[in-house]
Design a protein that fits this description.
heterodimer; A: 133 residues; alpha+beta; 3 helices; 4 strands; B: 67 residues
Chain lengths: 133, 67
């Protein structure tokens, strides 16, 4: 499921907005029984604006998972999230003015799963980067 | 090295470059270095640091598992 969503990000966002002033942080970690670092797909996110990291202790997913109640308003309408411990198969889109002190500011939308929230993400990209295609 | 010799070397180099140059494929999008590696995240603070270093850019965080 994550692979499908990530592939969609590559083909429908990154390839279609090659000039967008954008940074993507892809934080990978184990969630399913078959997951392992060795299964990381290096050819999935091939865009130079992507930074990949392996997060063995699920630190980022846990950090976000503990804070979803405070960002509930930005959850895309087609997403589902039941306040689990680790947020995963998820995206969080921040504006150019975002700054992370205690928590990141300027959150536009977040979604889970990536596939479920993709239409909102696509619309956000159209609004942000219409002239960058 | 005399100026004449320097000029001759530059001219030969220019001829070689012109003769061997071939147009590359037009890339429709930015492609990462093929040697991209997966490095360990050094905690939430690393993401925070990267995030703030990229101020001025729209930022997209993906939290994903590899399958």
């Amino acid at each position: 499921m994550c692979v499908a969503g990530t592939r969609w990000v590559q083909t429908e966002l990154l390839q279609k907005y090659p000039k967008a002033n954008l940074r993507v942080y892809a934080v990978w970690f184990n969630m399913l029984a078959n997951d392992s670092r060795s299964k990381w797909p290096p050819n999935l996110l091939t865009d130079a604006r992507v930074i990949d990291r392996w997060d063995e202790p699920k630190a980022d997913g846990t950090w976000y998972g503990q804070r979803t109640s405070s960002i509930r308003l930005q959850l895309t309408p087609d997403s589902k999230w039941g306040d689990g411990e680790v947020l995963w198969d998820s995206f969080l889109l921040y504006g150019a003015n975002a700054r992370w002190d205690d928590v990141p500011t300027d959150l536009i939308h977040w979604g889970r799963t990536i596939v479920a929230g993709r239409e909102t993400l696509k619309i956000d990209f159209e609004k942000l980067f219409t002239s960058k295609r | 090295m005399t100026d004449r010799l320097r000029g001759l070397i530059a001219a030969v180099a220019a001829v070689i470059m012109t003769a061997t140059w071939t147009p590359g494929p037009i890339r429709p999008y930015v492609v990462a270095d093929a040697s991209a590696k997966l490095t360990d995240l050094r905690g939430v603070n690393e993401l925070k640091t990267l995030f703030n270093q990229d101020a001025g850019k729209v930022r997209l965080v993906l939290l994903v598992s590899p399958t």
